[in-house]
Amino acid sequence: MISAAHTVLSACLVSIGASALGLCVLVPISKPVGLLDHPDKRKRHAFATPLVGGLAIFVGMLAGWLWLGQRFLGPAQKFDDIVLATACVLVALGALDDRYQLRVSVRVVVQVVAVLTVIATTGIYVHSLGVLHGYELKLGWLGIPFTVFAVIGLINAFNLMDGIDGLAGCLALVSTGAIALLMAPDMPAPLTIIVLLLAAALYPFLMANLGMLGKKAKVFLGDSGSVVLGYVIAWTLIALSQSTPRYISPGLVLWCVALPVMDTLAVIYRRLKRGVSPFTPDRTHIHHLLMNAGLGPRRTLVYLVGYSIVLPFVGVVIHAELGAIANLVAFVVVAAMYGAFTTHLERQQAALIQAPGTTARRLPASTTARPAIHFRPASSGQTLKNRRD
Fold first, then answer.
1. Any residues with CB less than 8 A from the CB of 256 and at least 6 apart, and which?
2. pLDDT higher than threshold 80 for residue 144
3. What is the mean pLDDT of the chain?
4. pLDDT-based confidence at 368, cuts 50/70/90?
5. Is residue 379 pLDDT above 60, yes or no?
6. Is 49 strand, coil or helix?
7. Which of 74, 99, 134, 252 is most buried, by the most CB atoms less than 10 A from its CB?
8. 37 in any annotated domain
9. Is residue 210, in this structure, part of any structural domain at all?
10. How far apart are CA 300 and CA 167, in angstroms?
């Protein structure tokens, strides 16, 4: 166990180093290849910013996995190999989308094919929703479309949360940390290695994205980055919750990605209630609303990350003490409370802007989020930008 732990730790260090090196190589060539986010009347960052954060993260993750080589053999390694291979295609697609703004249909079709490829080659998909009162909730063949929807949905959820510096990356770290805690004392398990490498590769990007390396070193995540975050985390949770024996109860999966899922559901609900398409872009995500309420980008980041850290612990305690049904009910209740809170904030702010005899307060240009999958995604860390949604 100690030897295996040291091996995984060394692989994580390789991922950190390769991710940092990737940034050093990719940032200078971002201008020649056109992977830049230029400021304009909608995008008010100070200078053209490289959209290469996601590429560097994937390079780091892939380097750590290649360094491990044949140390972990068997079905688990095959699964990780297939996930990384299909993720490579999606990352390349995301980079092309950042550069050329590909048609939505192209992106969706490629994502569906990638998910179906993993299912066809590994046999892993969501075939069970867990056990309630001794009865297994099996999905049968419905598990395949359910898995496609779940994976693409989580990709989209991370897209939507990628609206201020560091938010999508930090939420991904929270999810990987929740997975690691739920796995103990079985760590390191082969199925979790890929997500640990992802977490390690995130650190250099977050340092650059949050301005810790200087303003000129800032990079944005790009569509390639949000895709790889949602895709890898989604498949890790599916594999761990559908394995035999199960490493993570299916009832705890949603708690590991609670904030992105809750915010996506809440925004879609409000759009449907207004009678518009759920994929119509707007500025009603939680980070928009908090910043409209007067919080700065860093305080908003701290509050949201802190809240996202608490949620997995809530799920674990309820699941352990009260069981699966209470756990499901608790998630629904928390999601409903979250939806009610964000709806109240949205109405309050809309009333303030529209009130007669008052001067509309200028909303921060940074309160924009990544649009849903049907629109051109924004880039990470746009705290000084006005994106199209």
1. 175, 178, 179, 182, 233, 237, 248, 312
2. yes
3. 83
4. very low
5. no
6. strand
7. 252
8. yes
9. yes
10. 9
Q: Is the pLDDT of residue 365 over 80?
A: no
Structure-token pair, residue 101:
């703004």
- Where is mean pLDDT largest: 241-250, 275-284, 328-337? 328-337
**pLDDT digits 0-9 by tens, 166-186:** 999 999 999 999 998 887 666
Task: Check residues 126 and 369 and name the one with the higher pLDDT.
Answer: 126
Cα–Cα distance list, 148 to 125, 128, 156, 184 (Å): 9, 14, 12, 28
Which residue type sits at 223? D
* 134 vs 73 pLDDT, higher one: 134
Report the run of H or E that residue 265 belongs to, with start and end.
Answer: helix 258-273
180's tokens: 């690691």
DSSP secondary structure string, 288-340?
Answer: HHHHHTT--HHHHHHHHHHHHHHHHHHHHHHHHHH-HHHHHHHHHHHHHHHHH
Per the structure, the complete domain to which residue 66 belongs is given by 2-251
**336 found inside a domain:** no
Helix boundaries (H) for 69-189: 75-100, 104-122, 143-161, 167-183
What confidence tens digit (pLDDT) does each residue in 212-258 have? 888 778 899 988 999 999 999 999 999 999 987 788 888 899 999 99
Number of domains composing the chain: 1
Mean pLDDT, range 310-314, rounded to an integer: 94
Three-class DSSP category at 189: coil
- Alpha-carbon distance 280 to 267, whole Å? 10
| DSSP summary character for residue 137 | E
Specify burial of residue 31 (Cβ count, 10 A radius: 0-12, 13-18, 19+): exposed
E strand or H helix at 347, and its extent? helix 324-354
Question: Distance of CA 16 to CAs 11, 20, 29, 206, 219, Å?
Answer: 9, 6, 20, 11, 16
Question: What is the C-alpha to C-alpha distance for residues 189 and 175, in angstroms, rounded to an integer?
Answer: 16
- Let me know if residue 83 belongs to a domain: yes
